[in-house]
Structure formats: structure tokens, C-alpha cells
Amino acid sequence: xxxxxxxxxxxxxxxxxxxxxxxxxxxxxxxxxxxxxxxxxxxxxxxxxxxxxxxxxxxxxxxxxxxxxxxxxxxxxxxxxxxxxxxxxxxxxxxxxxxxxxxxxxx
Amino acid sequence: xxxxxxxxxxxxxxxxxxxxxxxxxxxxxxxxxxxxxxxxxxxxxxxxxxxxxxxxxxxxxxxxxxxxxxxxxxxxxxxxxxxxxxxxxxxxxxxxxxxxxxxxxxxxxxxxxxxxxxxxxxxxxxxxxxxxxxxxxxxxxxxxxxxxxxxxxxxxxxxxxxxxxxxxxxxxxxxxxxxxxxxxxxxxxxxxxxxxxxxxxxxxxxxxxxxxxxxxxx
Lengths: 107, 218
Fold this sequence. Notes:
The complex is a heterodimer of chains A (about 110) and B (about 220).
Chain A: H1 3-20, E1 23-24, H2 25-33, H3 40-52, E2 56-63, E3 66-73, H4 75-106
Antiparallel strand pairs in A: 1-3, 2-3
Helix pairs in contact in A: 1-3, 1-4
Chain B: H1 3-13, H2 19-38, H3 43-48, H4 53-67, H5 70-81, H6 87-95, H7 98-107, H8 109-161, H9 163-212
Helix pairs in contact in B: 1-2, 1-4, 5-6, 8-9
């Protein structure tokens, strides 16, 4: 898959995980990995980009004598998810059109 | 490799980054290593599972290089994923803080106020022109009806003194009546068409505003 496209999709995956509840790096990877393999080195830039884009905010909580950074989705992030779903509905229509054209070509 | 070694190696590879960004990246990986160890991995394993430090550092550096072009990245990824019109403007504005948006709006007000006023003027002008056409059509229908009625009645009076002229006038008045009826039918269907046009125009403008508000993307 096109890397830029995959990046965009993974961003929305992270937002979808955060929509359920605030989460931290290790847990986000665990949640997403059930569906798509993702490494820490991929997640870090995504989180950074989402933060820069105001899609999420962060806060720290003490855990076992150290700080754990939590990520929280913002209204902008929620809108990102909605836009993604709307966009993909549109793309699926285009996909159907292209598929139909291919079939017509063969027959 | 131990956690301390990992941190040392990583920070030397991303030396070029500003201190805050460097620390953020290191904190992120430290937390992952700690969480892994909490879940039963040894320090050695937890670090090894992160993969090559070089690859990690390259991704961090590549991302902060892209950061300067953040808005551009957004633009390109958005238009790629969404061929819908106005797709990227939404996210572009989303990337700006509200405060900045207001400042920009105020600073550029001499330009956009003029533009908005111009557009409103054009719309009002168009509405006026359409109204003018409708009114003039009615006036024409009315004039023809009056001409037909008056001509018809007076033609009998003229006929008593001048039969040929009277008949000519009768014919002319009936012609007026026919034209009046034709014009009536024509203008009624024109008005219907105008109403329909306005309605669909209003609907599409409403939809666009709806979309711009980020409530829905069709």
C-alpha cells in the first residue's frame, strides 16, 4: 500500500483506539496490533503528528515510580475519524465504479 | 543492550534535534521498555524488540523534517484520501488555532469584506433582474388584456360609422386577446422554472455550508 496512505490510515486507527479511552504507548500498540502490525518506531511519529495537528493532548500519570504518558483525543481528533469514514464511503463508491468498468471491459 | 545503552545511542543519533523534541522521543522509548519489562520481558529482550536503533532514529529525524511542512503534508494526504471538494481546507483550518484564525480574518478584512459585499451585491442584482422580468411580463399580460377588451367593445361603435375600420379593429383586438393568453401560459411556466431553480440553488448552498461546518462530507 502507498506509504502516505497507510500513515493516514494508521493515524485514524490510533484515534479510534483513543476514542474508547485514554491510553499510553505500549497499550496502543497492543490494541492496534490485533488488526495491523505496527512498531514503536511507526507509532511515535504518528502520535507526534496527531499532537501537532491538535487531534490529541497528553498528560502524565505516576505509575510504579515513573511517569506514564497518556494520550487523550480532542474534538478535532473525533472529527478526523468522522471525516475518514465519510471519505471512505465515497472511495468505496468509486471502487465499485472502477470494478464495474473492469468487468464490462472483460466481457 | 541495556536500557541505558539504548538511551545513550539513540540520543547521540538524534543529536541534531532541539532538546525538547529529543527528550520527548527518548521518554517515549523508555516508557515502552519499562512497560515491556513490567510485562515479564528482561531488559535485554525489551530493548532488542524495538529493532534497530538506526532505523528508529531515522524515522524520528524524517518526521521532524516533515514537521516544517506539516500543513503541506496534510494537504497532500487529504486530497489523496478524499477527492471531495473542500476536503483539505477543513483540515488546514483545523491545524490553525482559533486565535490565529481570528487574527488572520481581521487582518484580511479589507479584502474579504469587499469581496463578500460584491458577491451579495451581485446576488441582489440578479434577484432584482429576475423580479423585473416577472413584473414586466405581468404588465404585458395586463396591457394586452386591456387592449383586447377596449378594442373589442369600441370596435362595435366604430363599425356603425365605418364598417371596414370596425372589422379591422375587431380583428386587432382578438389578436391581442390571443397573444395575451399565449403570454399568460408562457410566463406561468417561466415562473415555475424560476421557483424550481431558486429552490435547488438554495439547497446546494445550504449543503455546502453544512459541509464546511464539518458536520458532513458527502
